[in-house]
Design brief:
Elements (H helix, E strand, L loop, with lengths): L27 E7 L3 H12 L4 E5 L23 H8 L1 H24 L11 E5 L2 H18 L4 E4 L14 E5 L7 H15 L2 E4 L3 E8 L5 E6 L2 E10 L10 H4 L2 E11 L4 H7 L5 E4 L6 E4 L6 E6 L5 H15 L8 E12 L5 E5 L2 E5 L5 H21 L31 H17 L2
Parallel strand pairs: 1-2, 1-9, 2-6, 3-11
Antiparallel strand pairs: 3-5, 4-5, 7-8, 8-9, 10-13, 10-14, 11-12, 12-13, 15-16
Helix pairs in contact: 1-5, 1-9, 2-3, 3-9
The chain binds flavin-adenine dinucleotide.
The site of flavin-adenine dinucleotide has 46 residues, from α1, β2, β10, β14 and α9.
Length: 441
């Protein structure tokens, strides 16, 4: 029997994007936040709780962006190894990146638990498969550094030990760590929406921002934000649009490369079959540059797998993901796919997340495909910047935030305006690198 492919995220079956409850338009706020995803709500909650008048303006529905489309793996990944960061920034600062990632992961779990958000939180760990011995050696080195810096002790497996986690011949070993887990991302965002509303934040959906202007500088600094629902002035603006940034935020667009990440969900395989393929029912990833990430669905009956898009034809793209799944778990050669969807992730040119202030506007962005942890965390840090300013001179110039990402340069490239014409070439380059790496042993 042919199954009709659903092209919206699997997560939307349980928690589709929603409109905010209708409310009277506001033309003045302490803080305007542009974008209703993890970053926007991550910022709104502490600000509203501190008693500020907070308005979120979202051009679509709540959760229309990446926050409800993702794999729900609480990775808090950094694209660069500790050794690479040490070479670039020195040992002390490299350790700070890792400590902050550790704090951000823990903070997400505490938030979900404290706010009693029903989002299928699974503290199940994550297994990363190594496709060749060099990758396994790199994993060992990274694991040693991680345990020195954060106290998390990853477990390294050789091929013989893999069966504890996955029934696959694709890997020569891998690493499992217990500080990464899984959530249902659309349920998490719905929970953050609820918490923000009860803290007093006001949310407007279908309110597309067209421009942000600074109308006064100095002690009475403020901003004028034009939206499709009306104009609003605010003492502070946080831009939380990440990979969905458009012409309203040209400064940010010039600094981010939007990349398509896409996922498939299998038909129901049954809990026993999923458990036999993935005995530890962890979250999973691979050592490759353009590898896959995958996981059991929260009910344990399906497998969800994602990767970067390599082909513009969605039918070919879905088939490529299915082939990727079968390359890992050949037992699934005959299984049907029920869902195929995509979204955008954002990469800064140096592949490190950012928390940057430009012309008074605060920009948390650029999570490199790992925003389930980073987006909420850096949204919170943006809130901390506003609260620091409010507690000081209230100059409309953001205060400081205790984050290693706050003082990184956020660069663009000459002639780049946000349309990544070079992306197909870059993806081919990474694919070739992966092939070459697999040939070396
Ligand atoms: C398929 C996929 C799988 C992923 N898997 C994982 C994973 O397993 N683990 C992980 O950590 N991360 C993952 N990610 C990344 C993660 O989802 C994102 O980094 C994170 O959700 C970013 O959150 P955000 O709030 O910054 O942006 P978004 O959730 O994208 O929200 C931005 C919002 O801004 C709004 N907006 C844009 N312009 C305007 C405007 N002019 N006016 C008003 N509103 C505007 C958009 O409509 C959008 O709703 C994945 C992403 C995708 C797409």
């Amino acid at each position: 029997m042919q199954i009709r492919l659903i092209t919206t995220p699997y997560w939307w079956d349980a928690a589709p994007p929603a409109d905010a409850a209708p409310t009277e338009w506001q033309n003045r706020a302490d803080v305007v936040i542009i974008g209703g995803g993890f970053t926007g709500f991550g910022a709104a909650i502490p600000l509203a709780r501190a008693g500020l008048k907070v308005v979120i303006v979202e051009k679509d529905k709540i959760g229309a962006g990446a926050s409800t489309r993702n794999g729900g793996i609480t990775s808090g990944n950094l694209r660069h190894s500790y050794n690479k960061l040490s070479k670039k920034f020195g040992l002390e600062k490299a350790a700070k990146f890792y400590q902050e990632a550790h704090a951000a992961r823990q903070d997400l779990i505490s938030f979900i638990t404290d706010e009693q958000i029903d989002c299928d939180l699974q503290l199940c760990g994550r297994f990363a498969g190594a496709t060749q011995p060099r990758a396994l050696a790199a994993m060992q080195s990274e694991a040693d550094n991680l345990s020195k810096i954060t106290g998390v002790v990853p477990v390294i497996y050789d091929k013989a030990g893999l069966a504890a986690h996955i029934d696959s011949d694709k890997y020569c070993g891998g690493v499992w760590r217990d500080d990464i887990g899984g959530i249902h991302p659309a349920k998490l965002l719905a929970g953050m929406h609820r918490v923000a509303v009860s803290a007093g934040a006001q949310i407007f959906t279908g309110a597309a921002v067209s421009s942000v202007r600074r109308i006064e500088a100095g002690a009475d600094a403020s901003f004028s934000v034009d939206t499709s629902k009306g104009q609003i002035t605010a003492g502070h603006v946080i831009t939380a649009t990440n990979a969905y940034s458009d012409s309203a935020t040209p400064w940010l667009r010039r600094r981010l490369v939007p990349v398509i990440s896409e996922m498939i969900a299998t038909e129901e395989l049954g809990e026993n079959r999923v458990r036999s393929l993935m005995p530890s029912k962890s979250m999973y990833s691979e050592s490759l540059q353009i590898g896959h990430y995958f996981r059991p669905s929260p009910d344990g009956k399906r497998i969800l797998l994602g990767g970067r898009r390599m082909d513009s034809d969605p039918t070919i793209a879905a088939e490529r993901l299915r082939a990727g799944l079968v390359s890992i778990l050949p037992d699934l050669a005959d299984c049907a796919i029920t869902h195929h969807w995509f979204g955008f992730v954002a990469f800064p040119f140096d592949q490190l997340p950012k928390l940057t202030v430009h012309d008074g506007v605060i920009y948390p962005a650029g999570y490199c495909g790992s925003g389930t942890v980073w987006a909420r965390w850096l949204g919170q840090k943006a809130a901390q910047m506003v609260l620091g300013d409010v507690a000081g001179a209230s100059s409309g110039n953001a205060g400081s935030a205790d984050s290693v990402f706050a003082d990184l340069p956020f660069r663009s490239m000459p002639f780049y305006s946000g349309e990544p014409w070079f992306l197909p070439l870059a993806m081919r380059f990474y694919a070739v690198q992966d092939k070459l790496a697999n040939l070396r042993t």
